[in-house]
Structure formats: C-alpha cells, structure tokens
Write a structure and sequence with these properties.
About 25% of the residues lie in helices and about 40% in strands. By secondary structure, it is an alpha+beta fold. It has a six-stranded mixed sheet. A four-stranded antiparallel sheet has the order 1-2-3-4. Helix 5 runs antiparallel to helix 6. The two termini are about 40 Å apart.
Length: about 280
C-alpha cells in the first residue's frame, strides 16, 4: 500500500510542477516561486484513488524593485491503477485568493472573483465539497495508513469541509462532546460551533486554510496534534521582503486533541490561535 500512496503523491507533485511551469514561463521575470502542498488526503480502494489538497504559493521578483505575491487554492484529483501503475484520470483546481504587489504574475492566475451571490456570467467553482470529497468518492478505503496519518486525514477532512462549505465533512470528524475555542466566538460545543461557522462562512465566497502538521503524538486511543496555518488571515496579504520571502508564511495555528471513537479519530478539543500578520 505504501508504494501506491507514494505513486499517487508523485503524480500530484508532477501536477504542481507543471502548474509552476505554466504560471511562470518567463524565468527572466520571476526570481522565486514555490507551491506548498497542504492537507493532502489520499483514499484508495482496489484500482481507484481519490485525493484532495490545498495549496498556497509565493512568487517574487527583484527586477524593477522587489515585488511579491501569495496565492492559494484547492485541488481534487482522481486516479486509476492500470497494469500495476497509477494514472491521473482528472484534476480540478480553484485558485481562490491572490494578493500582493506582483501584479504581472497575479494577472496570469485564474483567480476567482470574491463577490458574493450568483450572476449570469459567473465562473462556478470547479471543486464541489459534496461531489469531490475523497471520503465521498471512496467511503471504504483500504487500510495502509499509520495512526498518525489517519489523524492527519481526519483534520484535513475538517479543513476541506469548512473551505468548500460542505459541513457534513466537518460534522463527521467532530466528537459529540467536542469543545472548540476560537476568537472572537469563545468556547463552543458542537452545535454552537457548526451553527456559528456556517454563518461566518456566508460572509465570503471562498475560504482557504492550508495547514502543515508541526507534531502529532499518539497514546493508545488519544492523540494531540499541532498544525500551522499558511496564507494570510483576514487581510490575506503577508508583507514579504527579499530576506523573508522563502520563509514558510505562517499566520495561525491549531492545537487539537483527538480521541478514537468507533474506530475513527474524532476531534474532541480544538483551539485556533491567530498569530497576526507578523506570525
């Protein structure tokens, strides 16, 4: 199974490298570009595979003065195993945010508009939380993950759910007695959190929460994990300079406790900590 996961990861990495090449064909203008793959979930059943991931990237140029931008989006992909080799069947991607003063690069990105509501010429998102979730595509995945990897996938399902407004994905990974601590809302139980986050989600067309795991500690049926959130918060533009553009752009963190319930890892406590634009 590990070989299967590794093959799919390699296919997705190829997609990201090709994406960089498409967005940055003129290397004379761009001095630095890097795409972080975050929150990757891979589910496999027999010869079928499904994946979701969030991305955030940074591009900069020092020609004509220092310019930089940060962008982010969400991706889903489907795979099929043919003759013992995995092949990419489809990839869907939405670039949801891009901000900064590197205007000539931003103009090349297929960024969605941010205004709320529907209109006749709207470009609908390619990724559907209800139709493209790896957990929906492959409800019963084959075993092959470590406990740490299962915990990560549980949290990444939560992220996928809030960012695609598919709250069934969120509810599925929250324990019935979960406690969520998040400013400015304070401490919330499961019902309060779900109802609050739905209302807050309505204020923006897109949310994006790329996260990287900092640590995961497992003790029998309990676990603790700490995640770093990339991409800006609120005003999503982080202030880059030549000496920090290659640093990981962190703006917040999640301190999360998990408990194994019914064979699945559920979030029992979660605290979100906003680190500020300098974080």
């Amino acid at each position: 199974m590990k070989e299967d996961y590794d093959q799919i990861k390699s296919l997705f990495q190829n997609v990201m490298e090709n994406t960089e090449a498409i967005w940055a064909p003129d290397k004379m203008e761009i001095d630095y570009i890097h795409i972080y793959t975050c929150g990757s979930v891979i589910r496999i059943c027999e010869n079928r595979g499904a994946q979701s991931a969030e991305i955030t990237g940074v591009a900069s140029s020092e020609k004509d003065g220092f310019r930089a931008c940060q962008f982010a989006g969400i991706c889903v992909a489907e795979y099929e195993k043919r003759k013992n080799k995995w092949e990419t069947i489809s990839v869907k991607m939405d670039i949801t945010h891009a901000e900064g003063n590197f205007k000539s690069f931003i103009e090349k990105l297929p960024v969605h508009e941010q205004s709320l509501g529907w209109h006749k010429k709207i470009r609908l998102p390619a990724v559907s939380g209800e139709l493209d979730s790896p957990f929906g595509k492959i409800p019963s995945a084959e075993e092959g993950l470590t406990e740490q990897e299962k915990i990560l996938q549980s949290f990444y399902r939560y992220i996928f759910g809030i960012d695609t407004a598919s709250f069934e994905n969120v509810s599925q990974v929250l324990a019935e007695n979960v406690m969520v601590i998040m400013e400015p809302f304070g401490m919330m139980d499961k019902r309060t959190f779900l109802q609050t986050i739905k209302l807050q989600r309505m204020t923006e067309r897109f949310w994006i929460h790329p996260v990287l795991p900092e640590k995961v500690q497992v003790t029998k049926d309990e676990a603790k994990a700490y995640f770093l959130r990339l991409m800006g918060h609120g005003k999503r533009w982080l202030q880059f300079a030549p000496d920090n553009v290659k640093n990981v752009p962190v703006c917040g963190s999640y301190d999360v406790d998990f408990k194994r319930q019914g064979g699945e890892w559920k979030i029992i406590r979660m605290e979100y900590i906003y680190l500020g634009e300098e974080g």
